[in-house]
Amino acid sequence: MTKNFNFIDKLRKAGLRPTKQRVKICEILFNREKTFHFTINDLAKKISEELNEKISLATVYNTVHAFEKKGYLKEIAINGDKSYFDTNITAHHHFYDEDTHELIDCDQNDIDSINIKNNITGKKINSVEILIKVASDNQNQN
Amino acid sequence: MTKNFNFIDKLRKAGLRPTKQRVKICEILFNREKTFHFTINDLAKKISEELNEKISLATVYNTVHAFEKKGYLKEIAINGDKSYFDTNITAHHHFYDEDTHELIDCDQNDIDSINIKNNITGKKINSVEILIKVASDNQNQN
DNA sequence: CAATAGTTTAGAATAATTATAATATATAGT
DNA sequence: ACTATATATTATAATTATTCTAAACTATTG
User: Are B55 and B19 in contact (CB under 8 A)?
Assistant: First the structure.
């Protein structure tokens, strides 16, 4: 469990107190190879599966939002009904599988650089996110 | 009111019964020059402002979703908390003003063509949406 | 180890959306 | 035009997602 020291450190550096709950959530979110796309609900479910303890939903919300504010998580643009978060905070894009409602990372290198010729005057561009919606080829979507 | 005939026709062609409520909603949505970005709530508010009648919220939901299914409206990808719809159903992209929470159309011509080199196997691309988040230049967002 | 500032928690409150079931309306067939 | 039937609308209830609240708890500082 040497990794938990990293999480405690990580939280401290962001000015967040390393509470038990936050460290646990860190373990679930950041102890993994590939990036993790999730809704608050997904995460809450994972917590009760992988941990034996239960963390209050309100705390999950608070923690995720705290992590997002500190840049440890990124909120992803998807059609409005749910809020998705992403542990991959580098600039990248997404495929959204409309059949399975799954989100898949799309490497920035898989898309030729995007050149925006016209910006809103007086504003600066904070981010450019591409969402590529895909679906099974032989399936008719009505 | 010659325009209402168009709406009745439009609804009929989509197999939707031209009810009073649907025609009214058509008037509000499609009797305008520039595209209209809205949440269900925005639309409901507009209805009670511009019309003297009141249409049940459930009907507004049903109608908007029926229109979306028929391709008269497009749902737009934004960070999860709200569902936005767009009367502009042509391929185009959006600026999202994080200061004002306003959505502005971005013409496809203002962005150099996007070339996606790697698709998910067995899937076909249904749409490619770009969201450009902007904010005031001299304002610090924490 | 005590004080305090920040955190967690259960549950209430709010907001967004969908379901329900009764009533009303549009359409097709006469 | 009239009636039967299918579909739509409505108010309200139910559901789901999210935020707020106030009390109990915990990490940090001195």
Answer: no
B32 pLDDT above the threshold of 50: yes
Chain D: nucleotides below 7 Å from protein CB are 7-13, 17-21, 26-28
Closest by Cβ to A129, choosing from B109, B111, B131: B131
pLDDT at B97 over 50: yes
Q: Which residue carries 């391929």 as its tokens?
A: B91
Interatomic separation, CA of residue A23 and C1' of nucleotide D26, rounded (Å) = 14
Answer with the residue of higher pLDDT: B99 or A131: A131
Q: Please give the Cα distance from A19 to B107 (Å, whole number).
A: 47
* A86's tokens: 């992403």
The rounded distance, in Å, linking the Cα atoms of A108 and A92 is 5
- Scanning the structure block, which residue is given the tokens 């325009």? B3
Q: For residue B70, what is the nearest residue in chain A, using CA coordinates?
A: A142
**Which residue segments constitute the domains of chain B, with CATH numbers given?**
2-76 (1.10.10.10), 90-134 (no CATH)
Q: How far is A135 from chain B (nearest CA, A)?
A: 5
Interchain contact, B134 vs A120, CB within 8 Å? yes
CA B75-A67-A12 angle, 5° bins: 170
CA dist., res. B84 & res. B76, Å (int): 5
CA B122 → CA A50, A56, A137, A138, B114, distances in Å?
32, 40, 6, 9, 20
Asked if B132 has any chain A CB less than 8 Å from its own CB, the reply is yes
Number of Cβ atoms within 10 Å of the Cβ of A99 = 11
B140 touching A (Cβ < 8 Å): no
CA pair distance A25, A17, nearest whole angstrom: 13
Predicted confidence at residue A56, as pLDDT, reads 96
Cβ-based contacts of B134 with chain A (< 8 Å): 119-120, 123-126
